[in-house]
Write a structure and sequence with these properties.
376 residues, eight-stranded parallel sheet, three-stranded antiparallel sheet, 13 helices
Length: 376
């Protein structure tokens, strides 16, 4: 099927197989690409997993806080894989300047600013403690059409209530800056879903493959499922699935929060690093979950063909005001086919070594869908 609903003839289809779903390369509006050897290992995973336009997070060491730093980081990413459109963000802090953004954002590829509450996730030690300090900056961002990306958790409370505790701050920010586009990243609670729906057209939310899949039950005892914000209760997951899979709400779109860590930082007794690495098999994960996770279309392909193309391609592009990609025969695309696929045990071992390699999300699991690139 094409994104417009027509059946596409794909060669080399085995007898008895379902027709393939062909999509333009997806948009992933939240990804971590790290630095140095890890950057070299995981940046190629973006297009391998089916995306070619991404919003890059700035929580490197040190964080990316000027347009010049963002331009330098972007150049390094382009040297690894020039086929991807890297949309850069700055790390909110006192060093972020409205004058710098006004003069240099376009040329450096900066499209927004990311806020991290201090100490809640990876490399957030330099995060913020008060939003009101940055109201003058937000006012200028509103005028420039830049986006505020928010990791929405409150530090110092239970991981199960940290997102819900943050939501009044999101509502206050929106009230103060109603024309500022705000993205609540990686929503993980039913309460967040309800609030984003209520706040209107300038507030959107990214949704990850792992928050569509996991609950806290799958996190306990498995460090590779540990992320921030943590997956919550079953009713929270169902609310996220409903707004994405059953309803197809246009302000909830793909942002993988793919966050690679070396296995030796995940497979430890205490303080495992937070993050699920989903980039290399992103669309296969999503297709698999869209089949079995939807309350309305369980066990058939309807949700994949009906909801997935907009979730990974149209909704985010329309929210950010960028061109919506369309499938065109002969152009680069992703082919999703209903065929058993086993997720590999590691990624990047040739660059990072055995202990430094990254364990992909759902390592060893058999997915119902396999993805491959065509036209590249």
């Amino acid at each position: 099927f094409s994104p417009d609903g027509g059946i596409v003839d794909v060669p080399k289809m085995d007898e008895g197989e379902s027709p393939a779903l062909l999509l333009p390369l997806a948009d992933d509006f939240h990804v971590h690409l790290r630095q140095d050897a890890m950057m070299k290992a995981v940046t190629p995973a973006v297009i391998h997993g089916g995306s070619d336009r991404v919003v890059v997070m700035p929580n490197t060491i040190p964080p990316i806080r000027t347009c010049a730093e963002a331009a330098d980081y972007r150049a390094k990413l382009q040297a690894i894989d020039p086929r991807v459109d890297y949309r850069m963000t700055l790390y909110l802090g006192q060093e972020v300047s409205a004058d710098d953004l006004r003069a240099n954002a376009d040329e450096s590829g900066v499209r927004g600013v990311k806020s991290y509450p201090r100490g809640v996730t990876t490399n957030s030690e330099a995060g913020i403690e008060s939003y009101t300090t940055y109201y003058p900056l937000f006012s200028e961002m509103e005028k420039m059409g830049l986006t505020l990306h928010i990791h929405g958790e409150v530090p110092g409370v239970s991981v199960l209530t940290a997102e819900a505790s943050f939501l009044p701050q999101l509502e206050e920010l929106h009230r103060a800056f109603p024309s500022l586009k705000i993205v609540l990243e990686h929503v993980s609670t039913a309460a967040a879903v309800l609030l984003v729906r209520r706040l209107g057209p300038t507030v959107g939310a990214t949704v990850t493959a792992h928050h569509l899949d996991l609950t806290i039950d799958e996190v306990v005892g498995c460090s590779h499922n540990f992320c921030k914000p943590v997956a919550k209760m079953r009713e929270d997951r169902e609310a996220i699935r409903q707004v994405v899979m059953d309803e197809g709400h246009p302000r909830f779109f793909l942002g993988s929060d793919s966050a690679p860590h070396p296995r030796h930082k995940k497979e430890i007794g205490m303080k495992a690093a937070a993050g699920c690495f989903t980039s290399p098999f992103l669309l296969a994960y999503l297709a698999d979950t869209f089949v079995w996770g939807s309350s309305r279309y369980t066990d058939d392909d309807t949700t994949v063909t009906k909801r997935l193309p907009d979730f990974v391609g149209r909704f985010g592009a329309e929210f950010f005001g960028v061109p919506v990609k369309r499938y065109e025969e002969g152009k680069p695309a992703v082919e999703l086919r209903k065929r058993a696929f086993t997720v590999p045990s590691v990624w990047g071992e040739s660059i990072l070594g055995s202990e430094g390699a990254v364990v992909p999300f759902r390592s060893g699991d058999v997915l119902r869908y396999e993805s491959r690139l065509v036209g590249l």
